[in-house]
């Protein structure tokens, strides 16, 4: 196309969104910018066991020019995303099935094959709705692979939730004590307080029950009076409110026994895969806070319903919940503006949130059920880490221990047996599959284990893959990414700087693997899975040079964090006696691979322990023991927070940690 002498040959409006280019032959937008456009969403979904269910169809009307992703999010239709609709994660894949030809962006070209583009596949966050469209939405991963249990400690069973069965004497003219006095006098070892709900219940319960009732007590608050002896019915739910995954565990408080556990994807996911994008959403749209709060409540309510159904428990018999979440997730579920958490100097509204009614966070349990929230040490070392420290006894063990919760925001705690230090490192979304070319969450089809044999006689045997669900590989999750990089470093196809070696050098190092080095566009890649010998590299599952860089930056941020904490206490790497890898990602990460890429100190792998869902374990402990709950609050005074951004040596330390040392 020639360029006229009087200016550029494009309209600024056509390229207002980065990467937008017109598809050859595409018609110009037909809408004049007024009124509304009609979008018809056909939403596909699956049951918990992966069985497809009939799709649902939703019609929405939106202003012209909004993205399809935003239009769906505004109307409660979940499209997969980890970047919150900013065009960087390439996860919001949709298919346009009717409507005029739609533009193709350079990001679409990188994401889809030519056949898929011709079939109408696009990234929803880059497609502006300028005309009526019919949109197919693929199934959303609602049950990612998650750790539901973790390392914990035995506790003395002394819950805040108590039940006391009493048989009261009836009122007489000689004994005209109030109903409340009659009940509190019978439980004279506690100074009970009662609210209006209980006063309303007293008059309707005592007499029909012949004054034989059970008092329901939380700490010293009388929350209900039930007819007869119901002392055996005492339930509570522990929640690990993660940014990506939420886990709920139903407990029988009378015995301390877990009855059911379930996990699901956080329904806030369409707003972004990390806390920064969700904070940004509230800053850009005043209505986003309410929608994020509603999404968090809906996620907790869904899990509560599932665990109660599985255990055959009436939700009205659940009297207390404990929530362990990072500072942003806690603020969002409580409806507290998280903006101060996202801008310097990163200040929380409160370190110890108040105990509230469970109904205030969207839960339909007992009408007076309470929700306890773990305290946070800082804006980026939140209640989930406090719960994890409680579960692992970081303040009780005299060994030198390193606690690492690997994720988008990586929290690190170091103890030398006397002093506790904590910090947070911005690792980015690589470990969740974000910003990775073929990245995906840990769900069916994700490669989670990679083994490489540089001396294999058959090329097909040179790479062995472990795939979640034992199905055809669809992408690469965080543990698979770490394995793939670690294996290529081990055999020499990735040098210390993280660069894929030239083809000729690769043939000399590992002939069985050299043919897997290819190009996608102008970028060098290593092919992990090629469905057929004729499949184009762009349609394979591969590790790209950019993916390696993303992992380098993530692991360097984390290793810089724990290195500086060790330096703060005058310790060397070899002084660490145990490394605890917490969270779902830490549970499935290969210790050997973590050591090889420098994600953790170079220690014998037996010193590196997968701690699992320790946040959930800490939440259980808080429900089963008031002593442990007090211990969680005490950690606020015991742990010193170290702000990495204040360290003048942070940048130098970060650069030093980028390399893959042999």
UniProtKB/TrEMBL annotation:
Q: Name one GO molecular function term.
A: iron-sulfur cluster binding
InterPro entries according to UniProt: 2Fe-2S_ferredoxin-like_sf, 2Fe-2S_ferredoxin-type, ATPase_NBD, Beta-grasp_dom_sf, Corrinoid_activation_enz, Raco-like_middle, Raco-like_middle_sf, RACo_C
Q: Classify the source by domain of life.
A: Bacteria
Per UniProt, residues of the 2Fe-2S ferredoxin-type domain are: 37-141
SUPFAM superfamilies (UniProt xref): 2Fe-2S ferredoxin-like, Actin-like ATPase domain
Q: What name is this protein filed under? A: DUF4445 domain-containing protein
> What species was this sequence derived from?
Nocardioides ganghwensis
């Amino acid at each position: 196309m020639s360029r006229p002498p009087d200016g550029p040959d494009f309209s600024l409006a056509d390229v207002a969104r980065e990467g937008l280019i017109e598809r050859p032959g595409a018609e110009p937008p037909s809408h004049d910018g007024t009124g509304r456009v009609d979008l018809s969403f056909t939403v596909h979904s699956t049951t918990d066991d992966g069985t497809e269910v009939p799709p649902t169809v939703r019609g929405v009307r939106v202003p012209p020019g909004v993205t399809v992703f935003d239009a769906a999010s505004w109307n409660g239709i979940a499209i997969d995303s980890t970047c919150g609709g900013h065009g960087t994660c390439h996860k919001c894949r949709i298919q346009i099935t009717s409507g005029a030809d739609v533009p193709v962006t350079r990001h679409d070209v990188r994401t889809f094959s030519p056949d898929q583009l011709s079939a109408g596949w696009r990234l929803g966050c880059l497609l502006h709705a300028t005309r009526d469209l019919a949109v197919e939405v693929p199934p959303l991963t609602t049950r990612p692979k998650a750790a539901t249990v973790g390392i914990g400690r035995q506790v003395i069973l002394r819950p805040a939730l108590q039940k006391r069965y009493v048989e009261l004497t009836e009122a007489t003219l000689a004994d005209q004590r109030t109903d409340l006095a009659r009940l509190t006098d019978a439980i004279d070892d506690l100074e009970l307080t009662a609210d209006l709900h209980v006063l309303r219940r007293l008059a309707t319960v005592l007499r029909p029950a012949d004054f034989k009732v059970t008092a329901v007590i939380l700490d010293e608050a009388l929350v209900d009076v039930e007819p007869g002896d119901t002392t055996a019915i005492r339930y509570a739910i522990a929640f690990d409110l993660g940014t990506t995954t939420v886990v709920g565990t139903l407990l029988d408080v009378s015995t301390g026994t877990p009855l059911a556990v379930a996990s699901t994807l956080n329904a806030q996911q369409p707003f972004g895969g990390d806390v920064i994008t969700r904070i940004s959403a509230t800053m850009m749209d005043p209505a986003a806070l309410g929608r994020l709060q509603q999404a968090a409540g809906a996620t907790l309510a869904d899990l509560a319903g599932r665990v109660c159904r599985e255990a055959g428990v009436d939700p009205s018999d659940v009297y207390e919940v404990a929530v362990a979440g990072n500072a942003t997730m806690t603020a969002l579920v409580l409806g507290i503006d998280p903006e101060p958490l996202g801008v310097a100097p990163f200040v929380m509204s409160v370190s110890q949130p108040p105990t509230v009614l469970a109904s205030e966070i969207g839960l339909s349990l007992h009408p007076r059920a309470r929700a306890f929230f773990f305290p946070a040490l800082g804006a980026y070392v939140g209640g989930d880490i406090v719960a994890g420290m409680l579960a692992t006894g970081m303040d009780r063990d005299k060994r030198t221990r390193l606690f690492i919760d690997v994720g988008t925001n990586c929290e690190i705690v170091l103890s030398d047996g006397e002093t506790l230090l904590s910090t947070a490192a911005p690792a980015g979304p690589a470990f969740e599959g974000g910003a990775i070319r073929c990245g995906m969450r840990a769900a069916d089809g994700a490669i989670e284990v990679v083994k490489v044999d540089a001396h294999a006689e058959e090329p097909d045997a040179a790479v062995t893959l472990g795939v979640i669900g034992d199905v055809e590989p669809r992408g690469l999750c965080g543990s698979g990414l770490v394995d793939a990089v670690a294996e290529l470093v081990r055999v020499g196809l990735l040098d210390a700087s993280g660069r894929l070696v030239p083809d000729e050098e690769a043939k000399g190092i590992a002939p069985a693997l050299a043919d897997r080095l290819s190009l996608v566009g102008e970028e060098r890649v290593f092919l992990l899975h090629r469905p057929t010998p004729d499949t184009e590299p762009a349609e394979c599952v591969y590790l790209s040079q950019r993916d390696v860089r993303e992992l380098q930056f993530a692991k360097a941020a984390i290793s810089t964090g724990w290195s500086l904490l060790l330096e703060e206490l005058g310790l060397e790497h070899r002084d660490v006696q145990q490394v605890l890898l917490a969270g779902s990602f830490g549970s499935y990460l290969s210790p050997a691979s973590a050591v090889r890429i420098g994600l953790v100190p170079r220690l014998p792998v037996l010193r590196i322990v997968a701690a699992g869902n320790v946040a959930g374990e800490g939440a259980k402990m808080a429900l089963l023991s008031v002593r442990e709950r007090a211990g969680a609050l005490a950690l606020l005074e015991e742990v010193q927070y170290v702000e990495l951004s204040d360290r003048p040596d942070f940048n130098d330390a970060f650069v030093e940690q980028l390399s893959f040392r042999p």
